[in-house]
Write a structure and sequence with these properties.
The chain is mainly α. It has one domain. It is built from two helices and two strands; from the N terminus they run ββαα. Strands 1-2 form a two-stranded antiparallel ribbon. A hairpin with a 2-residue loop joins strand 1 and strand 2. It is elongated. The chain starts with a strand and ends with a helix.
């Protein structure tokens, strides 16, 4: 699998599992951004506060989900690798 490295070059992904997770997270961020733009637009056009509340809940859930992914990534990267290296 190849990943965009910037400046017109492609680099091979060393760990396909990490590349797959990053692809899913990037797709999630794009979809959440689109959802927030649409929700904000609906709030501006209709003035209905439920769209604003929905956007707030979406942002809170996204931040929570990203923190969980970051914690799991750090756990896998440092704690489990170090712990299994001792055995």
């Amino acid at each position: 699998m190849f990943e965009w490295a910037g400046r017109g070059s492609l680099r091979s992904c060393a760990d396909d599992k990490i590349c797959g997770i990053m692809l899913i997270l990037r797709l999630y961020i794009v979809l959440v951004t689109l959802l927030l733009v649409l929700s904000g637009g609906m709030y501006i056009f209709t003035g209905n506060r439920r769209y604003l509340e929905f956007a707030t809940k979406t942002v809170r859930f996204t931040v929570l989900l990203l923190l969980v992914f970051a914690a799991l990534f750090l756990l896998e990267r440092f704690v489990l690798v170090g712990w299994l290296g001792i055995l």
